[in-house]
Design a protein that fits this description.
This protein is mainly alpha-helical. It has helices at residues 2-5, 10-25, 31-43, 49-53.
């Protein structure tokens, strides 16, 4: 999901947001992991910060 939030195409990012919202609604969202995983992806230049910020 973290990689999806930084995906190249907006529709792919939107799908990742849908998953995030679904998990949050079911009380299954791992918030600490959601914060850690994008940081790892950014550190390895696997996603662009501007895509995650959007």
């Amino acid at each position: 999901m973290a990689y999806g939030l930084g995906a190249r195409h907006p529709e792919d990012r939107l799908s990742a947001v849908d998953v995030l919202l679904m998990l949050a609604a079911q009380h299954r969202l791992d918030a600490p992991s959601l914060g850690e995983k994008p940081a790892i992806l950014l550190d390895h230049s696997l996603v662009k910060p501007s895509r995650l910020a959007g």
